[in-house]
Design a protein that fits this description.
By secondary structure, this protein is mostly beta strands. The chain is 5% helix and 44% strand.
């Protein structure tokens, strides 16, 4: 039989193929078993070299395997508010170009939880992302050995006007190295959402937060109620990239940063305060403690707005405390003698050995100034760099400065100011 309509049939066939391709679905969920997830197995290894999606509430037992997700691989979990995916492994390596993600629609309530339990090391050189819902996902990593968070950003964003950032918990029986950006922010377009997430890092050994951010911050959380950042090291704690917890417009309080180690060296900004355009937000809190010494070379900022209160900075060490960056805990707004009803913050530095301060410590307010306490079992040295007073609570009614050396001497080479407007 002669085909009278060859062109039309060819066109219909092509259209049907195009229509089918427009409905191509992402990878189907696989069974929660090693055989279904591992593309190659042998010699105690599980290699994931393609995209694998786990069903909700999956407990994937790979505890007998060293798991490696290659650059062509990806491991995802279907996530909802009450979903928890648990991955048990001998060790986990996420290679560059690969990812661990929670699939989360923009309209969903939460990206759920992912828990990684490893009897060995956990290394991320790829991407970890639990984002998309109004609440960012919760990621927990428990490792008996070292943890390296490298690669691309580790994101736990919440999105929308009432967004809540996700939480990150890392517990290591060895060391923790952060070599990437960790962000647990609450996003509302380009503003801040409702509540920032919390970040908790704890290691038996050293914690090193270095080279994670060519620009910006290594660890950050923000929201109208900002999150809390806690870093607890059984060994040395070294920080060379900024740590920020920031309050957006419409919030009331600053966030909190808590650092502890056998020794603590901070060579980057610590910031727990409002963003630049928020006037009525109290400064946050920074507390640093060490079994031996503390060294600070960059600024700590916990400033409040001109109609609020300055924040609190507390530094405790059994050994020496050396400070060569500014500590800014005032609440004076912009410009000399700006108007407002603010109260300055509080700074307390306590050492079982010596204290040396070589830059400005400020707790001034517009209505009432704050307080500075330096307490040492040995000597205290104050030597200013620049024209500003070393210790300054002087902007309104005058504040309080207490310097106490219990065993040796106090050496002051510069100005102290605690007398208010009359002396300025």
């Amino acid at each position: 039989m002669i085909d009278l309509y060859p062109t039309q049939k060819k066109f219909m066939s092509l259209s049907f193929i195009v229509l089918l391709s427009s409905f191509v679905k992402p990878a189907l969920a696989v069974d929660c078993t090693a055989e279904a997830v591992c593309d190659m197995m042998g010699g105690g290894s599980c290699i994931i070299s393609s995209e694998k999606v786990l069903n909700r509430n999956c407990e994937l037992d790979l505890s007998a395997y060293a798991v490696r997700i290659t650059g062509d691989g990806a491991l995802s979990t279907k996530s909802e508010a009450d979903n928890e995916t648990k991955i048990l492994c001998n060790s986990l390596l996420i290679e560059a170009g690969s990812s661990l993600t929670a699939i989360c629609d923009d309209g969903s309530e939460s990206c759920g939880n992912i828990v990684i339990e490893s009897s060995g090391t956990v290394t991320n050189n790829g991407s970890i992302e639990l984002t998309g819902g109004s609440t960012g996902g919760f990621l927990t990593i428990e490792s008996a050995s070292d943890v390296l968070l490298g690669g691309e950003n580790l994101d736990l964003y919440g999105q929308g006007g009432s967004a809540i950032g996700g939480n990150l918990t890392v517990l290591s029986g060895g060391t923790i190295t952060v070599d990437t950006n960790i962000r647990a922010k609450a996003h509302a377009t380009n503003a801040r959402g409702e509540r920032g997430g919390d970040i908790f890092l704890q290691a038996v050994g050293d914690i090193d937060i270095s080279n994670g951010a060519p620009s910006g911050s290594a660890i950050a959380t923000s929201g109208l109620i900002p999150g809390e950042i806690i870093i607890d090291s059984g060994g040395a704690l070294t920080i060379t990239d900024p740590i920020l917890t920031e309050t957006g417009n419409g919030g009331r309080i600053g966030g909190r940063i808590r650092l502890h180690g056998s020794s603590v060296e901070v060579n980057a900004q610590l910031r727990a305060q409002r963003n630049a355009s928020s006037d009525d937000i109290d400064g946050g809190q920074v507390w640093i403690s060490a079994q031996s010494y503390v060294s600070l070379t960059e600024d700590i900022e916990v400033e409040g707005g001109p109609n609020s209160r300055g924040g609190t900075v507390r530094i405790d060490a059994y050994g020496s405390i050396i400070i060569s960056g500014k500590i800014l805990a005032g609440s004076t707004g912009v410009g000399a003698h700006a108007s407002g009803t603010s109260t300055g913050g509080n700074v307390q530095i306590s050492s079982g050995d010596t204290i040396m301060v070589t830059d400005q410590v400020s707790t001034d307010g517009l209505l009432k100034d704050g307080r500075i306490d330096l307490l040492s079992n040995d000597s205290i040295g104050l030597a200013n760099i620049g024209a500003d007073p070393i210790l300054n609570t002087s902007n309104s009614t005058g504040g309080q400065i207490r310097i106490e050396s219990r065993a040796s001497q106090v050496s002051i080479a510069g100005k102290l100011a605690a007398s208010g407007y009359a002396a300025t």
